[in-house]
Structures are given as structure tokens and as C-alpha cells.
Design a protein that fits this description.
The complex is a heterodimer. Chain A is an all-alpha fold. Chain A is built from 6 helices and no strands. The longest helix of chain A has about 45 residues. The chains are: A mainly alpha, B mainly alpha. The interface between A and B is medium-sized, with 31 and 38 residues.
């Protein structure tokens, strides 16, 4: 029999060789000093590894981990609250912007309509509402409010993007 | 309370008894630490990653499917975290620096504690740390954690045959390390 390959040595140690091959190998070990020595070396490594002891982690890891978990739970809660707040403000911002868009186009809702009477009535009502808002609040106030809303909308988007980055991280 | 199974502890944690999680930490801390220390070759990194693994697994407990053992699932988190840590740039730089420093006598220079402890197991551990990460992982999981090749294959995401090949190679590699460092008398 030829000398055993490394794979065969390992399979012999792990008891994975078929009975016939195992028998042949055992016979070979009695005849070949080289393979017999190699087997002893690998067996001693195997035994050594079987004896090994686990490494001891420094004391207090339970406390550190539980503290980290508690801190993360607290952070997650506050982040959720903050995120909810931002989403609410974002929704309000969108509503305001839609409101202003509607305000701007009011009076021109139905320039062409299949039913002229209804269209005229709606347009007239829109114009009246617009005039009322204009008189009671003032055009400048409205414009600055609109600008503030746009700014707020942009800020909301920025916060949401930042939040998304944090969550991904 | 200490005789509870892993699943019973997990159920208790999921029912709101978060403090019971410390039982799982106590149960796996040393073994997981051994795996990390041998893969990362650095005690501080190993401790830091171990803490992160426990935190990660706490928040992922809900997604733990009970088809596999908790230990297999947890060691997979540990193994993947170690691989991620190793693939980090910082780690690469540190390793390059260490490899330059270690040229004269890797065992004594990389681990200063060697001076204070000459126990056989410590020497073996140092020799295992000299192996490539995947060899160190397979040897630790097979011999120290007593996991089967099937379980190891799930943890390191490879085939059972590949685990066997890795195991064979890692034993041969360890033999080489022991021989190169002239540790035969001390260990074999």
C-alpha cells in the first residue's frame, strides 16, 4: 500500500474511512514507520484539541450588555417619538401646500366645463373665498406663511433623509 | 432558573422579562469569546464584538426561527460579526502593522500575556490564533463548542464537505505552527 494522503490521515482520525480502507490503513501503519509517526502526530493534535479549554471573558459582561440593551431601547423609543413628530409635521406641511395650491388656482378651476352654470357657480364661490382670505389676512402675510411652509416642507424632507441614514447605519 | 433551556429563556425574554437574557449571556459568553478571540486575534476587539453580538441577538430574538438550535443561530451572528470586523479597513491596517512587528517572534510579541501564563491551554490558544481566521473558527467550533460539521456548515455558510476539508487543513496547519514555533515539547 502507498503512503496515506493527508486527507486519508484525517479521515482515519475522524473515523470516516470505509471498513476495508480502514483495515488496510491500520495494516499499513504497522509496516510503515513514516506513516505511523505522522498518524501519531495528527492524533496528538486531535487529542490536544479535544482537551482545550475555553477562553475566559473579563467579568461584568452581562451588566455591560444589559446596560447597552436598556440604552438602545430608550434611544429607539425617543427616536420613534421624534420620527412620529416629524412625520406629523410633514403631513401638515403637505396639507398646507396643497391648500395654498388650491388657493392659488381658485377661481380658475373650471375655465371650460360641460356645465357652464355649475362651473360659474364654483368659480364665483372660489373667488369670494379668496377675496375673503385676502382681505382678512393680507396678501403679504399669506405669501410669507406660504414661504415658511415651503421651508418647513424642505426641512421635513431633510430630517427624514437623515433619519433614514441613521436607521440604515 | 439556571436549568432553563435556551428556548425557555428566549420565551421568557420575549414575554417581557428582558433580564432573563443575562442567563443566555452567561451560558455562551466564554465560548463565543473564545471563537472571537481566535478569529480576531485581539482580546479587546473580541470583547467589543461579543457585546455587540449579544445586543444584536437580543433585538433579533423575535426573528429567531426555532428550526435550528439557538447556539447555531447565535454562533452565526458571532462568526459573521467577526468576518465583518476583519474586513474593516482599520483591522487591515492593524494586521499589517502587527505582521511587521511579529516577524521575529509572533507568539510572544502579539500576546503580551504569554509572559505571565505558561499554561498548556494558553499556549495552544496562542498557536490557534496563529491560524487563518476560518481555520481557527472551524477548529474552535468543532472541538471547543462540540458542534457537528452540519452545524458548522450552517454557521459559516458553506457545505459540510468544505467544513471537513477545512477541519483537515486546520489540523495540519496547527501541526505546522506547533512545529515552526518549537512547541512540540510543551504541547504534544
Amino acid at each position: 500500500m502507498k503512503h496515506l494522503s493527508i486527507s486519508e490521515f484525517n479521515r482515519f482520525i475522524d473515523n470516516e474511512l470505509p471498513p476495508q480502507e480502514k483495515e488496510a490503513a491500520e495494516k499499513h501503519f504497522t509496516e510503515c514507520n513514516l506513516c505511523s509517526t505522522e498518524l501519531q502526530n495528527l492524533q496528538s493534535i486531535h487529542s490536544l484539541l479535544m482537551e482545550q479549554q475555553e477562553e475566559k471573558v473579563p467579568e461584568g459582561i452581562e451588566t455591560s450588555v444589559m446596560k447597552k440593551i436598556a440604552r438602545k431601547i430608550k434611544n429607539d423609543k425617543s427616536q420613534k417619538t421624534f420620527f412620529g413628530f416629524i412625520i406629523s409635521l410633514f403631513s401638515v406641511g403637505i396639507l398646507f401646500i396643497l391648500g395654498f395650491a388650491a388657493y392659488e388656482v381658485s377661481g380658475k378651476v373650471f375655465p371650460i366645463s360641460v356645465n357652464d352654470k355649475i362651473a360659474q357657480q364654483i368659480n364665483l364661490t372660489s373667488e369670494q373665498i379668496k377675496s375673503f382670505i385676502h382681505l382678512s389676512i393680507g396678501e403679504k402675510t399669506l405669501q410669507s406663511f406660504e414661504a415658511a411652509m415651503l421651508l418647513f416642507f424642505a426641512l421635513s424632507i431633510y430630517f427624514i433623509i437623515e433619519k433614514y441614514k441613521t436607521i440604515r447605519h | 432558573m439556571k436549568h432553563l433551556s435556551d428556548i425557555e429563556i428566549i420565551d421568557s425574554v420575549l414575554q417581557g422579562n428582558a433580564n432573563d437574557y443575562s442567563l443566555l449571556i452567561s451560558r455562551y459568553k466564554h465560548k463565543a469569546f473564545s471563537l472571537l478571540k481566535r478569529m480576531l486575534k485581539n482580546e479587546m476587539d473580541a470583547e467589543e464584538v461579543l457585546q455587540d453580538c449579544f445586543v444584536k441577538s437580543f433585538f433579533a430574538l423575535k426573528s429567531f426561527k426555532r428550526k435550528a438550535k439557538f447556539s447555531t443561530w447565535f454562533y452565526r451572528i458571532v462568526y459573521n460579526s467577526a468576518v465583518t470586523k476583519l474586513s474593516g479597513k482599520k483591522r487591515k491596517i492593524e494586521q499589517e502593522m502587527l505582521s511587521i512587528d511579529d516577524e521575529d517572534n509572533p507568539l510572544s510579541l502579539s500576546i503580551p500575556e504569554k509572559e505571565f501564563s505558561r499554561e498548556r491551554s494558553e499556549t495552544l490558544s496562542l498557536a490557534i490564533q496563529e491560524l487563518p481566521e476560518n481555520y481557527a473558527a472551524v477548529i474552535t467550533l468543532f472541538y471547543l463548542e462540540s458542534l457537528s460539521c452540519e452545524e458548522i456548515s450552517k454557521i459559516i455558510n458553506t457545505s459540510v464537505n468544505n467544513v471537513k476539508v477545512l477541519l483537515h487543513r486546520s489540523r495540519s496547519a496547527l501541526k505546522e505552527v506547533i512545529s515552526q514555533k518549537h512547541l512540540e515539547k510543551e504541547l504534544l
